[in-house]
Design goal:
about 525 residues; mainly alpha; 2 domains; three-stranded antiparallel β-sheet; about 60% helix
Length: about 525
Amino acid sequence: MNHEPKASAPARLFYWLVPSFSDLWFISILFLLTGGALAPKLLGDAGIGWHIRDGQQILQTHAIPRVDPFSAIMGGHQWFAWEWLYDSLIAVIHDRAGLNGVVFFAALVIAMAYAAALRRALIAGATLPFAIFLLALSLGASSIHFLARPHVLSWLLCVIWFSILDGDPANKTPALNMRLYWLPVIMLLWVNLHGGFLVGLILCAIYLIAALYGYRTSATVAQRDEAGKSLRLLAAATGLSFIASLVNPYGVSLYIHIYEYLGDRFLMDHIDEFQSPNFHGAGQKCFGLLLLITLVALAARREKIKHAHWMVILFATYSGLYASRNLPVSSLLLVLIIAPLLSRETGEAVENRAISVGVRSVFRFFHNFALRVTTMEGRFRGHVWVVIAIFCGLWACLHNGELGSHVLLNARFSENRFPVDAVRFIESQNIREPMFTPDYWGGYLIYTLYPESKVFVDDRHDLYGAAFFRRYLTTIRVEPGWNALLDDLKVNWVLVPRESPLANILKEMPSWSAAYRDQTSVLFHRTPD
C-alpha cells in the first residue's frame, strides 16, 4: 500500500509544468541535431538524395520500383528498394518542408530512440545518473551514424522491440506478455522501412533459446508449466513476426538478396560502414569505454544475470566490433542491460562489508543522490516542454526554417563536402550526359540532376555488385588499368574531388580537360578526337 502523502495542487502543477530530466534529455538531443553543433552531420551522406527521389516516384506512379531508374548503366536491372516505405514518407516530408523537414524528422527519431532507451532503463531499475551517463556514451558511439537515412528508425524500433521482449521487471503476469503480439505489427512496418528488421528476428531467437533453456531446466512442475506458457507465447509471436517480415514487395526473395549482399566478401571488405571500428575516432572510443564498463559490471556482479541478457550482451559486443554500422544498436542494447545492473550493484555495495568504510561512504552518498533524483524524475507528468519543442521545430520546418525572426533550421548539403557549385555549373551549361563520380557523391547528383541526368555509380552497392565495384575501385584509386572502365562505359564527364588521385591523373591526360574547378571538385570533359 502506498503511504506517500498526496501532493498539493501547487506541487502537482509544478510537476506538470517543469521539464523532467527525461524531457531535458530529449530536447537537448533534438536541439543539437537541428540547430546545434551536430546539425551539419545529418546531411553528411548523400544517400538521402536517392531516397527522396525514389519516394517521389513511388508517390507519383503509385508503384514500388522493381528496376533501377537512376543509373545510366544499371537501368532496367532488378533493384530491391527494400526501404520503400521510408522513401515514401521522407518524400512527403521533403515536399512539404524541404531538407529542413528531412533533417528535423531524423533528429526527432534519434531523440525519441534515446528518450525511449532512458525510459526503458529506468523501468528496468536503473538510476537516472547511471542511465544518463551510459546513454551519453551510446550517443557518442552513435554519432558516427548521425545521418538523415532510414537506419535511425531501426534504432527506435530496436529499443521498442527489446522492451517488449524483455518485459516489465515489476510485473510478471501472463496478461502482460500478451503485448508480445505487438511484435508482428511492428515487423510489418520495420521490414519495409529498413534492413535492420533482421536484428528484431535475432533478438526473438535469443529470447526463444533462453525460454527453451528455462523450460528444460525448470525445477518444479509449476515452474515448468509457467515456463511452457511463456515459451509457447514467445514462439507464436516469433513465428508471426517472421511471417510478417515476408509481407514486403519481394517476399522471401528479400532474404535471399540480403544473404547474397552480406555474404559477398569483397563488398563487406571494401564498404567503409562494414569495416570494424577504428578506435582512434571519438565515437569508437565511446563504444570502447562502454565495453570496458560492461566488462567491469559483469566481473563485479553479485546477482544472477538472465540467460537472454548474456546472449544479448554477446551479440551486441560481437556485432559492434564486427562493423561500424552496428555501433548505435549495439551500444543501446548494452546500456539497456548494464545500466540497471550497475545501479543495483552500487546499491548493494553500500552494505558490502568487504569494502572499506571510506569507499562505502562514497557509494552511499552517490547511491542516495541517485535514488533522490530518480524518485523526483518519476513525479514529473506533464512533458509540456517536449510538446513545445516539437511544435517549434515543426513550425520552423513549415516556415523556411524560421521561428519568428530567428533562423532555427538551415539544412543544406555542405559545399565543402559535396560538389554544390559544380552542380550549379552543370545545370547552367545544360549538360545532360551521365556523370562519373565517387559513389558517395552519386546520391547528391541524383537529388539535384535527376531525371535530366543520370549517374554511372552511387552508394547502392547491392545493386551494382562486386564485379562492377572491383573495376570502379581500380579507376577511382588509379590502379593499373584504371582507364578501362571509363573507356568501356564511354564516359565523357568525370566529377571528382579536387585533390583526388583520379583528378591528378586526368589533368595530365591530353584527352581530358577541366571544364570547371573550385575548392571542392573538378569537372573533366573528354576531348573529342
